[in-house]
Amino acid sequence: MTIRRQDEEMADESGRRTAAEDRPIARDDSELVDEERVMRSSAGGWSQARGWVRSLNAVILVALAVVETLVVFRLGFLLAEANPNNGFVNFIYDVSKPLVEPFQGIIANSGAFEPASIISMGVYLIAALLLIAGLWAITSGPSTSGEKVVTSRTQHRERTSR
After folding, report:
1. Are 50 and 139 in contact (CB under 8 A)?
2. Confidence band (pLDDT; 50, 70, 90) for 155?
């Protein structure tokens, strides 16, 4: 456990404000003293699990962004009636077809608009958000050691004659 105290601030040569040296706490009404108590302990299992879940959630969000981007490009190219013989357009169609195919036939296509693309985007978004929420729920156990606890209070300091 460490105690950080700040009685006054001083400006150093570069103009930055720094805390003055630590002084003992006095219990008098002369001047105010800020005290911050910081307690740390080694990281526990819940903290490590939360760290891994955050990393996994980031991977899920990146995968969702990639899938959504591919389907948006597919929908945009279909609406613009892009040339399917173009290499890039053909690549997008080929890569996004397995993502959209399970949703074909839910709503009939009308012209260049493909409702399956919109439906797939919604389903993938909801699935990713539910997965992330489930992972957070699993690791939302009680806060154990390994968490930083900070308490602050203001006290009065005795004046010293100089």
Report:
1. yes
2. low
146: left (phi over 0), alpha (psi -120 to 50) or beta: left
pLDDT tens-digit map of 32-74: 656 666 666 555 666 777 888 889 999 999 999 999 999 999 9
Q: What is the pTM (predicted TM-score) of this model?
A: 0.59
**Could you give the angle at the alpha carbon of 57 between the alpha carbons of 141 and 118, nearest 5°?**
125
Give the residue extent of every domain in the chain: 2-41+148-157, 45-138
Angstrom distance (rounded) from CA 6 to CA 116 = 62
> How far is 32 from 35, CA to CA, in rounded Å?
10
